[in-house]
Amino acid sequence: MSVLVLLVILLLGLVGLMLVGALAYAVHRRPTLSQPLTVALAGAAVFTAVITVIVSS
Question: Which of 6, 12, 16, 47 has its CA 20 to 30 A from that of 41?
Answer without folding.
Answer: 6
